[in-house]
Design goal:
418 residues; Proton glutamate symport protein; 19 helices; globular; 1% strand
Length: 418
């Protein structure tokens, strides 16, 4: 019998997600027991992250272009699916932010805290967004430079335009389409090879983070991080209920996407999960046109976990400074974050950028980010995991409301043909 994709040669009979958990446990042990050794393991994790980033742009370009090409001759279908996708993105983001604000009102994690200015705000964190520049930056003046710079949104824009052009190029498009199809499948194969090293990379990443940042930072902000994870759990339950109402088993769904969920949690990177996430969804019956549209778009525009954190952290900083947030201020947070969350996907430290925008709009000191940034990695692990789960739900919702095949992840499918 051939080995299932996603297993390594070292433990052929052990699923990759189990190997990743083993790597996580080993990394924690090394981080605590041998911190000096753990700090030297950083290059292993960096090599893995660089290898994944290496394939993200080629995969997004080929997958999105092919997905748009397949729908390009039916603009009505493309428009309908895009409208459903973005409607879902904004609804899910809004729900996430309401959960974050609500949890702060319940738990008040910063109550009695005299927030002190320690450290400095990271240099790459902007205090505001130039919206005119943002919209202009959607259009790459040099698509190759945009791809080389790992700029996802301009690459997405070009891929959509190129896919539409191919759809209307007739016979002349066949060679290019075949070439792109070959690239996409080659990227999936390359992903499989890179992921074989994931357990080792996860062990190195976790060991280094614990040894370099230490548990002191985690303990200092334990209450904030704890409330964040309560919120992420609430969000996961909400998403599970949505799946249940759609007739899909939430536990079966989580089990099927366990690998990208665990990779998201242990690496704190959506880029790492994107290739394997797309591959798993398609292997389980998700129409390619849905996966190619929703996952790359969701990677940039459907950051549910990040939205929850941004709302919660803004309220936390305000309370830490003794500032009471009125109802109008809470509405300001909701509306501003709803917009800014979609406009910072291509900016370094996106969650902290949105925090800076929110704090500035409320007249609060942006310096408070310096303390939040200390535990941003640990919160990011959970946020990224929920982002992956949320994008899976978005794909299934699009299948349901777009009347496509609905994978139930239990061996059956419902709905109309793809």
């Amino acid at each position: 019998m051939k080995n299932k994709p996603g297993t390594t040669g070292f433990l052929k009979s052990t699923p990759l997600w189990v190997q990743i958990l083993i790597g996580l446990a080993i990394g924690v042990a090394i981080g605590f027991i041998a911190p000096d050794l753990a700090k030297k393991l950083q290059p292993i994790g960096q090599a893995f992250m660089k290898a994944i980033k290496m394939i993200v742009i080629p995969l997004i370009f080929s997958a999105v272009t092919l997905g748009i090409y397949k729908m390009g001759t039916n603009m009505k279908e493309l428009g309908k699916l895009s409208l459903i996708a973005f409607t879902w993105f904004y609804v899910a983001t809004g729900i996430a932010m309401i959960v974050g604000i609500g949890l702060n009102e319940v738990f008040h994690p910063a109550a009695g805290l005299d927030l002190q200015m320690t450290g400095s705000v990271p240099k790459d964190i902007a205090k505001s967004l130039d919206w005119g520049k943002f919209f202009l930056d959607l259009i790459p003046d040099n698509v190759f430079a945009a791809m080389a710079g790992q700029k996802i949104i301009p690459t997405l824009f070009f891929s959509v335009c190129f896919g539409l052009a191919l759809a209307h190029a007739g016979e002349h498009s066949k060679t290019v389409v075949g070439f792109l199809d070959g690239i996409m499948h080659a990227m999936f194969k390359l992903t499989q090879g890179i992921l074989a090293t994931a357990p080792l990379a996860v062990a190195a990443i976790i060991a280094y983070v614990l040894a370099s940042q230490g548990v002191k930072l985690l303990l200092a902000m334990a209450k904030l991080v704890g409330v964040l994870y309560i919120g992420l759990l609430v969000l996961a339950v909400i998403f599970s209920l949505i799946l249940w109402f759609m007739g899909i088993d939430p536990l079966a769904t989580i089990k099927k996407i366990a690998e990208p969920l665990l990779l998201a949690f242990t690496t704190n990177s959506s880029e790492v999960t994107l290739p394997i996430h797309m591959k798993i969804l398609e292997e389980n019956g998700m129409p390619n046109k849905i996966v190619s549209l929703v996952i790359p778009l969701g990677y940039s525009f459907n950051l549910d976990g990040a939205a929850l954190y941004q709302a919660l952290a803004t309220c936390f900083i305000a309370e830490a400074y003794g500032v009471h947030l009125s109802m109008s201020a809470l509405v300001t947070i909701l509306v501003t974050a709803l917009i800014a969350n979609k406009g910072t996907a291509n900016v370094p430290g996106a969650s902290l950028v949105v925090l800076a925008v929110l704090l500035t709009s409320l007249g609060l000191p942006v310096d408070g980010i310096a303390i939040i940034a200390g535990v941003d990695y640990f919160g990011g692990m959970g946020r990224t995991t929920i982002n992956v789960f949320g994008n899976t739900v978005a794909c299934l919702a699009l299948c349901k409301w777009g009347k496509k095949n609905i994978p139930t992840f239990d061996g059956e499918q419902e709905g109309a043909g793809a």
